[in-house]
From TrEMBL:
Keywords: Kinase, Transferase. The keyword Transferase applies. This is 2-phosphoglycerate kinase. It comes from the Bacteria. GO terms for molecular function: kinase activity. The keyword Kinase applies. It holds the Pfam family IPT. InterPro entries: P-loop_NTPase.
Amino acid sequence: MHDSAPTASTEAIRPPYGPVGDGFPPDARRHWDVLLICGASGTGKTRVSYPLARLHGVPIVEVDDLVEALLAMTTPEQQPLLHHWRTHPEDGRLPADDIADLQVAIAEALVPAVEAVVANHLETGTPVVVEGDYLLPGLAVQESFAGIPADGRVAAVVLHEPDEAQIAANYLSREPGHGDQRARARASARYGARLAALAAEAGVPVVPARPWPDVLPRVIAAVERSSRANAV
């Protein structure tokens, strides 16, 4: 179970955007209202997104929670892609590239729900970190969300781990006793490669998940550079 996310402070939601926090350069600022932490399963998004949200004093939204809500409110006939893994569990044995294709398709089906969350935070001016497997990095370059102008307030980063063996080890670390994770890790690595390619097309930074000790400052620096470049 994850730690409870903090509530955004009044200072954090009021321009000029807030500082990063102790231990980081004093001129490092938060230039976003919505930060999307993208990446395939098992790459370490949680170990980045929760500390990052605490650092900025902002709440966090997990896309997994959106998926669970939508599954409870829809039928397989209404949203076949969202229900795919429940209605076709046998597809977990498909070739890794086919599973990666399915993951991209599911992420595309979830775009309207993610857009609604982003639009809400843009409209209210309340900053948030959004993290999940089904986040497409191209969302960060949309001009508007549900009619609300982005105005450069949406940023994204893809956390990338290309090593299948490391992803398998990550799975076993958080889910001990679940047996051989190599096939699952292979599919995750292929999906992660797709996300990294989509990020490159959109101009969204891709940050290697390792080395772990400095992944948080590397993510912050990558988002900062990207935000500055887009502001020019």
